[in-house]
Structure formats: C-alpha cells, structure tokens
Amino acid sequence: MPIVYQREAARRDLVEQFVYLAEQAGLDTAERFLANAEASFNDLARQPMIGALLGLRHPTLTGMRKWHVKDFENHLIFYTSHPNGVSIVRVLHAARDWWSLLGLES
C-alpha cells in the first residue's frame, strides 16, 4: 500500500477547515470532509499522476500537482509524488490566494 505523508501545514489546513465547516455547515459535513480528504489522499497515493501538474519553477515545488477533495471540489489538495506514495503539502480552499500560501508571488 502506498504511503500518504501529510506535512504539518497540510494537517493545520485540515483542522482549520474542519472547524470552519463544523461552525458553518454542521459537524456531519465537517466529518464527511475529513473522511473524503483521507479517501482522496489514498486515491492520489495509488494514482499520483491524476492531479494537474502545476509546472512551477520554484525548485522546492517542482513536480507539485493539484487535485480536489472528493465531493468538495472547491478544496484543493497540493501534493508531490515519490516512489512510495505522495506527500500532501497543503489543503486549501480554491477561493484563497493559494499562490501566496504556497510561497509564490501572484
């Protein structure tokens, strides 16, 4: 089974989004978000090339891809693949300035 590694920033993103969804849409939606995020991470680990390659020139972000959380299309997963699976870099809402949050200039 491929490995899913979550970077610290991605774990913080998940907690923040869980709290937001729990407050705004209810606990059931927030729990479904976390379950679907985990399922999406596992899908990416099995098929890491399904996400769109971002083509970033920043050396630490080379090979970064973008995909969405299942049934939460406005929540984007930024990840890199490696021989044993994937590394989840961030999980951000599409409306956020994700270029800046990834450390890139707009």
Question: How would you sum up this structure, described in words?
Answer:
This protein is of the alpha+beta class and 106 residues long. The chain has one domain (3-96): YaeB-like fold (2-Layer Sandwich). It has helices spanning 8-24, 27-46, 98-101, and strands at 3-6, 52-53, 65-69, 72-82, 85-93. It has a 5-stranded mixed beta sheet with strand order 1-5-4-3-2. Helix 1 (8-24) packs antiparallel against helix 2 (27-46). The chain is globular. The termini are far apart. The mean pLDDT is 90.
Based on the model shown, name its key terms.
106 residues, 29% strand, 5-stranded mixed beta sheet, alpha+beta, YaeB-like fold
Proportion of residues in extended strands: 25-35%
Work out the helix count: 3
CATH C-level category:
Alpha Beta
The CATH architecture classification is: 2-Layer Sandwich
Overall body shape:
globular
Q: Tell me the total number of β-strands.
A: 5
Sheet/helix structural class: alpha+beta
**Mean pLDDT across all residues, rounded?**
90
Terminal CA distance reads 37 Å
- Main β-sheet description: 5 strands, mixed
Number of domains: 1
Strand order of the largest sheet: 1-5-4-3-2
What is the CATH fold-level name? Answer: YaeB-like fold
* Poorly predicted ranges: none
Work out the radius of gyration: 13 Å
Q: Mind telling me the CATH superfamily name?
A: RelE-like
Helix content: 25-40%
Strand-and-helix sequence, N→C?
Answer: EHHEEEEH
